[in-house]
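## tool: complex_structure
## caller: assistant
## args:
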Amino acid sequence: MQLDVDISSKSYTSANGKRQQVIAGMTFTLRRGEVGVVVGPSGCGKSTMLRILAGLDSDYQGKVSQPAGARLAMVFQEPRLLPWRSVEDNVRLAAPDVAEDRLSAIFAVLELEGHRSHFPGELSLGLARRAALARAFAVEPDFLILDEPLASLDDALAARLREEIATLVASRPMITLLVTHSMDDAVRLGDRIFLLSSRPARLLHTVPIAVPRAQRSNELIAAIKADLARLDFSVS
Amino acid sequence: MLRLLSFALLLATWWIAAAVAGSVKLPPPSAVLAVAIAEAQSGALFLHLGATLARVTLAFTLSMAIGSALGYWMGRSRLANRLGDPWLILLLNLPALVVIVLAYIWAGLTEVAAIAAIAINKLPTAVVTLREGARALDPALDEMAKVFAFPRGRILRHVLLPQLAPYIAAAARSGLSLVWKIVLVAELLGRPNGIGFEIGVAFQLFDIPLLLAYSLSFAAVVLVIEAVIVQPFERRASRWRLRAA
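## result:
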């Protein structure tokens, strides 16, 4: 079971009538159990790529073959919760078959236990992001897409949530694709790192990390980051 | 409390005006109340109120259901909007009287004609309101529902209806007041019962207490329905807003 991505081109017509190319070429494969991390400059077309992979945009040249019958879950850049349903209802609507003990476990890991009956409008952004993560994990997906789930959170909280994502990803064999600006997130979470060029996005380098996530020491992470920095690539 | 005071002020004004104008043109509240009680005791008041309410309920339900579906469709599909727009503008600007008279001519002085005419009058405002609602739907939530593979029923109940609820409430509110007005005209012109028919009788006899007794009973029923059905629905629909206006 794997995800094959081969997008040769994606463009759209902007408001002033000009044709804009967003993606110029991207080919990669992700296997079950692997975490792919996409890193690229701001506005390079990462979110466009994710929309194509999630099946929300079919207007592109190329081919994306999702594993047949795969259950999809996505954490969007904004939490995208239903404001008129409680946190628990938001999760249950996406994952109607989730068992109560599994749900409790997810809420416990994400420290949402006390917020089950709150409406999204009553939550801070950090809590709302956690609720969106809870929803994605409750689905027990085969294919998980995370679009900058840790952006605009303070460092301590981001680090904790990163640990939680690592725990949850390890708990199930699934294909995971994470988009981030942070090299630190990329090196700590990824099995393979995809480095994209600025717009129109092209896949510049694929960097595999052989050492399992749990065994990566801080020295190793620093070394990999230094290696990445030497590549002809910069994250703005 | 303030409402009661305001109501008492209205009654007092009426009483004084009746005393000044003379009881032939404007009977005092007590005379109107006496007529209303007499009509209620004979059962006629409830018969006519019931007939009118039944027509209102049917026409309102019909036009809300069809109007909401059409409005949603026109808000979501550009083609539907292009096809429907000329009809909508025509219906919006067609005087109620024209629709009622034509309905009676084409379908006879029947119940079907009356209800259809009332429904057609209300339909375009429901369509216009719901079309705005459908245009304002959040595409981000559509995408969320698609990614998590929500089935249609769940999308309708948990994603679409909560977003459309304020528009449905607005359409119901404005539509109901329109239907209250038009139903009486339809009854006056071609029905043998209902408040509108009875007002027609009172007009021909110049029986002002009778006219006021029926009009005010009708107004009271409208107020009760507003307070018991429409306003609680609006409150419930906006419960999730932290501090709803």
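## assistant note: The interface with chain B takes residues 51, 54-56, 71-74, 76, 78, 80, 82-85, 89, 93-94, 119, 121-122, 135, 139 of chain A (CB under 8 Å). Chain A has two domains: 2-71+141-230, 81-140. Handing back to user.
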